[in-house]
Amino acid sequence: MESQSTVGADAVARARELALAKQYEPAVAILREHLTTHPDDAVAWRRLAGALLGCDRPAAAVEAAGRAMDLAPDDVVAHRHRALALHMLGRHPESYADAKRAVELAPDDDEALSLLALNVLNVDRDPARARALARRALTANPDSLPARDVARVCRRIRRTTTTTALFLAAAPAGMALMGLWLITYDTGSAGDRRWITWPAVAAGATVLLSLLLGRSRRTAPPMLTPPQMLATMSTSGIAAAGAAYGGTRSLPAAGAVGLVALVISGGYSFLLLRAARRGAVAEKRKRAVRSADRNS
């Protein structure tokens, strides 16, 4: 007759096979039954967490991974599972801590590095450091799908950040100059109006280019820092004021146009910050579920 420990090991192995075949619910059932008689089996708790992630049940996965970590504090996979589950729940600071601990335990674990990179984007909003972590993950495992996902997101963020900065500088200046052009259409010489017309046209072309190149904003939101936003706002105001002075030779008019451009740019920046706080939740959950498939 087989010993109880052998039967338990067979049950955990069978659950692992089911999870690898993406049959998560049967795996969860087997592991829960096993854990009723083997509550101190850290590997079973960890594999239960992975199967629950595959079922898109991150809250239950957090609890299961936590039990595994209590029993085996140095279990890297358990830390990864809980970090991923917390990430799926939007609890990014907690996920950051677990992913950081997983990297401390296994500095060359490509999935732990990738999870930490995702949390660096969400918590620190630091694409440069996230790219560095993704490169480390790809050095450890050139075929790492999670690391490739993060590297792709970082590239998109860099592109959308650049195009958004162009938009924040050009659109408000163009709007303010077009308003001035309409107001002064019947006054001043054609030569003076060219100082307003051509900068407004250039601003419009820049806006169009930024919109065409920044189509990934929904899945890779821009990450402009406050100093970068201030720089784009200042550029917009100064450019608008300079063009307005060239067209009107009036300092008060130039100052008013520059201020209007500055205010419009500030409004756009505020809306951008609000959108950035919300994040791309649907895309993040998709990446998390794909990673759960691999981690189970």
TrEMBL record:
Keyword Electron transport assigned: no
InterPro entries attached to this UniProt entry: TPR-like_helical_dom_sf (IPR011990), TPR_rpt (IPR019734)
Transmembrane segments: 165-183, 195-214, 226-247, 253-276
Keyword annotations from UniProtKB, A to Z: Membrane, Transmembrane, Transmembrane helix
Protein name: Tetratricopeptide repeat protein
Species the sequence originates in: Micromonospora halotolerans
